[in-house]
Predict the structure.
Amino acid sequence: MANRERVLTRRTMLGTIAILPLAFTARAHGASCADPATLSAAQKSMRKSLGFKSPAPDVAKRCATCAFFTGKAADCGPCALLSGGVVPANGLCDSWAKKG
């Protein structure tokens, strides 16, 4: 019985660890869009490699109109190219692709 309790506890802990990054991502959505200083080094590096700019120099080409952006048009949202990392809707990167 003691072994079974330990296994369940271990499973619970592993499950919690598995979903922990999702909780941090959801919590950081607003902060990441408002303050780029809150991004991790990996997120900053990925944005730099994609040539990310905010605000976009061309209003017609911005994250809100990109096929990889899955957020609402007027605020922050996840970008598929950034592994679901959050970007402002008025941003732009070199990999922009028209929706539709």
